[in-house]
């Protein structure tokens, strides 16, 4: 499993069939604003003569896709069949594969880097938003009416990116946030509450600290924090208070959330890398392979080797 950059994304999609690749990439990129671009799926299929198959990889950019067509999406350890209309929110944290099941595909998608949605520009840290967390649903099936509402936002984005308006990127960020908030209202997300009190703030800080350790991209990378106590110490609060807050906000204890995230990463590494079990165990903070195997079996009801083979 590799990590795809925004530049590699253009090569992956257009290959040598589309002469507009460099124009697309250079026109919408800037050191000060990061990178943003939007695409019409039907037009891309026509221009580049092929279905938009996205191989199973991690990516360094964010992507929001409005989908109209029959597709299969594999992400983390899940597979979702999109029968007709859906919206997908992809972040660098979760690897995924997107496979169209027929040629009749339409809709829109936009891609952007973290720099484009930098907190100093939007007053909001995109990495703390529920829609891009590992607990989100990633893909949301939507109705015809919901599709039209979201399509209208994409049409505004498409018009604006071609304009000469001096502040168009500020406006485009607002449209992206409109897409994100529309997505977050489509279906309740576990643990999503108004972030105006101490409990929700501590919960957000914990999740941010947890996610900083992922993804594991090298056998030389190792988790630095493994226990509830270690997280509490980093947040400068008592471990009992952290447990109480997370139970209140998410319905789960600190340890349960940590175990779930480590298990999720273990599944990805077992499924998508050729690293041996010992290397994966060390990366995930286990001193002994036996300890990792026992942990994994309790969480998944299968040994790491059995999970990989199956």
Automatic annotation (TrEMBL):
Residue ranges of domain HTH araC/xylS-type in the record: 200-310
Protein name (database record): Helix-turn-helix domain-containing protein
Entries under Gene3D superfamilies matching the protein: Homeodomain-like
UniProt keyword Transcription regulation present: yes
Keywords, comma-separated and alphabetical: DNA-binding, Transcription, Transcription regulation
UniProt organism field: Flavobacterium ponti
Pfam families, per the entry: HTH_18 (PF12833)
Presence of the UniProt keyword Transcription regulation in the record: yes
InterPro entries, alphabetized: Homeodomain-like_sf (IPR009057), HTH_AraC (IPR018060)
Domain of life: Bacteria
